[in-house]
Design brief:
Six copies of one chain form a homohexamer. Chain A has seven helices and nine strands. Chain A is of the alpha+beta class. In chain A, helix 4 packs parallel to helix 7. The first copy, chain A, is globular and about 50 Å long. In chain A, the strands form two sheets. A five-stranded mixed β-sheet of chain A has the order 1-2-3-5-4. In chain A, a hairpin with a 4-residue loop joins strand 8 and strand 9. At the D-F interface, strand 3, helix 1 and strand 5 of D face strand 3, helix 1 and strand 5 of F.
Chain lengths: ~240, ~240, ~240, ~240, ~240, ~240
């Protein structure tokens, strides 16, 4: 039995609230149950130095957590004077995942920064960030299309979404919340495209090692879940 | 004429949404028009080193802005490796303002940190932070009272709220939004208690110096506005 | 009774020693009693990036304290790896105050940095810095005038000086020394021009809130004190 | 054809040179072809704060690259003032991988730090670090056993080793060198135990997404390769 | 001919002004011509961690330069976020030099920090710091003796003073000022005790290497100069 | 008697292994007994900003120690966030020493960075770094000559090598190992050219001051030792 009473293949309720920022070119408040992440996409006219005069643009991501997004207050990273390893690891993952579905040449010499700020955390913040970040990025590209800067469909090649799966109490389950995550034996994050291609896989044995079969089961759960997330993304952007 | 069409003594619509955080002992999403600040109050059982074994507690504040809370994306302070002077100045102000209405001995050897994170900025983020921070602090103290840790009324001596006033287009006005703030000749922030005592005054001539009379007019506007804010706080916490 | 035996409206002995630096374009050792601040004005031919090609110059300030300027030795900020919030707050105030009397267009695309380094502290270091910083700035501009770079009177529009006032032992007093400052109920800093215009007001209740009347009394003390400081500045620069 | 002329399932020559450090309790210079990593295991008598009085110990890892380990000289991280995201990500991975085969209670309240310093890089530094780090860790535990501090076999539960696989020129290949790594379409790192359990999987599409089948092929390559690495580890420690 | 007209073996006018700080236990403003260094000695009741419960105390030094102590304004190290290599090197030298004449056991478990802050620089700031730092340290120890904490003569075993010598325009000269220092072929700093023992020697060829004979000449100049400095120290502390 | 059984004027076995790096333009693993330093010389086509358009190049050095190069593991400087004073002091010394034998104009507008990374430490790491760094630098210049970029003999004017001497157990000895170094009364480092010119002298009394005569004895030892090192360098590069 899962603490939340969910079935093993049942994700939490996922919602996307678009256009939540007065300023950002694209924005989305994504909720996976009690995990709430505010995603904004910001367009800048300059690229990173290594792309200057290459004709190509860049999509990058930054990730942060409000200090009391979690059960115990965490030290503010701005006050600590540096971003921790976990933060850097997650924002690199978000950036890679979003770039996997973007044609950087079609974007042109511009940079889009997707900020994913966790307002409230209950497990799965990185997968929510990717899934909601795609909406913010898409709406930023739409904003650009409206102004004749690009063709959105040429820049954005596909959907991308992510989900965590894990082995909790000897059962493979999808979309772990904090209670499950903190005692799971194995924890894996999957990032896939709308077409079902795999963009990123990260699996970690927290306690005892896992087998190839267990991993295949987790991947099966993830495929189904991500297909559902992509459907929800489609509904959200067609609204 | 103000850009928003407001009258010179008319504040923006102010709302408090309490209990927005699943984790924090007290929390409040405060809105002054398009300025939105998420305030959380976090209780910790230890005090800063200089108060150890003093029998006294501490209330402190931290302030941050999401990178795209503003019209142009700002560099994330965690990535820069330090909090800027403006950030430090504001969070010192919030902390002082809240402590002005707290009996630190009655609180006992505990620390409450009030985090004020600007989700969206449109001028007046520091005054919104103080005004909403009071709600979060109060609800944290209520939470403690419910657990028999303190008597809320012995710790929290009064309300505290804040408003900005300024001279815009030669007119003294209250509660400047970003458009007004960025071209105001004079900008002043007032922090007062429910009883009308002054906790903090900060007035700055952005362009030409101002006179004692002008300053008195701003203070008059502020007194009326803060009285209204205290009324709204009372309604919010009695709901 | 004040610890120093001074009358409530009596400032400490204020002196300006000009030209104390062999290198700086303008310099002044200012003393407010036992508070000694070395102010140097340094001219550079380049402006900050945001003013490039604007035709305007900039005046900025930096503030520091020698580690043993105070009763207990403080950690050296260079060794700590960052300037504290108090330092940043004070140097922002000094910069704003000096810019209030400078015509940045008449200055041309140059930057003047006024360094205020506290050699010995006994309360009132920020107000001494502003008051003495004006002398250093003025002498730097004079140096420039001598070389045909500017007309000093077109760049420097007025005097600016500052003083602290506070309520100590229930009495409004001017120019608090450290003993008074550390136990004052209310502490306010005023920055005004030679013409009597207000540039900056900062009032803080350290203990109980203060009233509008009390604040008006403090402002009255400040006006008289600053008028005296401006007279002393005039004597100093005419010497 | 692979640039090195290797077969798709052929690893580079792997060697372990044990006891290379005069000072460290365990040490190993591991070479995967031209990738050379110096691994040292250092025993300390204290644990991290969060384990104090828990009866448990800790194994952690740090990772670094000499500035000219790579084709172009990289900026020294000590001079930059911080470890980059890639460094932090890798050292977290090494630490987790080694802890997966350690019984922290049997270790007792001690910490072992495994430093993995890349002397020369040619792809696969993180997998070499894990594989060689296990040798250094094992020899440190042996050192402790010799002094009657622990029973090595009770602390060290199994071997752990790692290998990268990827899709290069449309072919799944094992143990990518730098030339392959920098143009691979997909890159995956596998960490497994001697018993064949999976400890960590990280797969990333560098260009187009990959399929479940492709991933299964990579895992098959990895299983065989890691089995070989474990055999080599066994030979090395029995020497 | 030296730019200053001095003879090759002629030091600049050296003066010590004692007791210049209201707060420090010992203080001295030392001038070597236009090089002015403010030295303060601060007593603290705790030692560095590595001496705790050893019965021994510690003497350490910190060194800083005001930003406009030099011909061109230097960036403030507190603003840069770190002390440069030159600063660290100099303060380590000052600390070693002073400790060479202190009996740390006789001092007892206390730390004295000697801060040397360069108010104005014209070459030779490190040697002035050592020479003046000795006065500040001695007066701090006298302060302690007066309070019955130590016997000064048991703690302070001898004088220590320092001077620079160099080869300028093919001539060995003593006490180089900035003009000489910046074009000297060889630059050497000598630290010696009152008894003539050598504490520290640092010689550097700026251009072409120097010979053993040249170095011996510089040492001869230094011995005479330091003897004079010790005489001046004796006069200063007997005043 | 020396702990190692060496005679007072006997250096440890010194070896140079050239070409140890696949990537660097010049490299050398230098060993002075158990002190092992990996030196790499990296060529870059740009100079530091202050030499731009000067026609001159630059040679600089960086120094680091692997965390477990020493008997007790030291904190990794990259993790600490800064290079310590000792590190900065040593790398400044290495850079100055190498530049003493380089004609920067003949080098042209290029920079060579010599990285000296201590793999294992047993005293004398800075002198080994200079002596081995010269080999790496020379081989980098040879690499450039082969490509027609420079004439090596016009850029590299002479050999440079370094050795430590000290007074251990009342005996002047050469090439101190860690055991000697940590209890020596006096420690001196000498840097000299092939022609016997002195480039740098650093002598420090660790305990009681030393005399001019003692220092002369140390210099005598150093001259003989450095002459031997230069002979070894010549043999190494002619191999």
């Amino acid at each position: 039995m899962r603490p939340s009473g969910r079935k093993t293949d049942q994700m939490r309720k996922v919602t996307f609230e678009r256009g939540v920022s007065k300023h950002a070119e694209g924005s989305c408040l994504v909720k996976f149950g009690d995990t709430h992440v505010l995603c904004t996409a910001s367009l800048e006219d300059k690229t990173p130095p290594w792309l200057r005069n290459s004709g190509k643009g860049w999509v990058t991501a930054e990730y942060g957590m409000l200090p009391r997004a979690t059960g115990d207050r965490m030290k503010r990273e701005a006050a600590s004077g540096k971003q921790g390893g976990r933060t850097l690891e997650i924002q690199r993952l978000i950036g890679r995942s979003l770039r996997a579905v973007v044609d950087l040449e079609a974007l042109g010499e511009r940079q889009i920064t997707v900020d994913c700020d966790v307002i409230q955390a209950d497990g799965g913040t990185r997968t929510a960030s990717i899934t909601g970040g795609w909406i913010a990025l898409r709406d930023c590209l739409k904003w650009m299309e409206t102004r004749g800067m690009i063709k959105m469909d040429r820049v954005l090649k596909d959907h991308v979404a992510a989900i965590s799966c894990g082995i909790f109490a000897n059962q493979p389950v999808i979309d772990l919340d904090y209670l499950e995550d903190s005692s799971a034996e194995t924890d894996a994050n999957f990032v896939m495209t709308g077409a079902g291609g795999i963009v990123e896989i990260q699996g970690t044995a927290e306690g005892k090692p896992f087998s190839e079969e267990e991993f295949a089961t987790l991947m099966g759960l993830a495929k189904a879940g991500i297909a559902d997330l992509v459907t929800l993304q489609k509904e959200a952007v067609s609204a």
